[in-house]
Specification:
single chain; 208 residues; 6-stranded antiparallel sheet; 7 helices; 6 strands; 45% helix
């Protein structure tokens, strides 16, 4: 009985902590491209680039670059998942390669940065996730390979900033939540963001 009460209490504290985190979560903002070894040789030629950062709260758990990359690119908001699905349908009509899961494969990494991307016939894409002392920076590089790729990216770049900001903000909220090792699994399921492949930390040890 005592254990059950403690579990319910820790679960309530967890949800309260998450609500506070959501209210305090910093907003992503555009920054200059950072200088890093992976970005320096990411593509032979860059036609377009941008970078967005989000501040890491002082008391937030320390996360590595691969964990941030997984949260950003494999756990996007539901509306972006729908957008990606529509994109996969439309590109077949205009003769552009489909993306698929391999688009966000990790190509190389260092202790504080990972580089993701893919080379396709219409363009090459790279995304860097760099973890600095008090912020995380997501940088996008694009090399156009054809007129069809240039026309396609002219449309994509219009919504790209909104997409990146939204994914980075969602990742920051998810990764700001501390790990719980003694929380009721039913409570932990409540804290999972909808339609995301990134589980709430601490849930795996309870459900396995």
């Amino acid at each position: 009985m005592i254990t059950h009460i403690q579990s319910r209490r820790s679960g309530a504290e967890y949800l309260q902590h998450r609500c506070v985190r959501r209210a305090r979560s910093p907003r992503p903002y555009q920054v200059s491209l950072p200088s890093s070894p992976l970005l320096a040789h990411a593509l032979p030629h860059v036609d377009w680039s941008d970078a967005f950062a989000v501040k890491v709260l002082r008391d937030a758990p320390r996360r590595g670059p691969q964990e941030w990359a997984d949260a950003v690119f494999h756990g996007p908001p539901p509306w972006i998942r729908v957008l990606f699905g529509v994109r996969e349908l439309l590109v077949r009509v205009v003769g552009i390669e489909r993306g698929g899961r391999h688009v966000f494969d990790t190509l190389s990494r260092t202790a504080d940065e990972v580089l993701l991307g893919v080379d396709q016939s219409h363009l090459s894409f790279r995304a860097s996730v760099l973890v600095e002392r008090n912020r995380v920076v997501v940088t996008t590089l694009v090399q156009l390979r054809s007129r069809r790729g240039a026309a396609y990216f002219a449309l994509v770049r219009r919504i790209h900033p909104l997409v990146v900001r939204s994914m980075l903000a969602r990742a920051a909220r998810a990764l700001a939540v501390p790990t719980l090792t003694n929380t009721n699994p039913a409570v932990l399921r409540l804290c999972r963001p909808a339609a995301t492949s990134v589980p709430c930390h601490g849930a795996q040890s309870q459900e396995n």
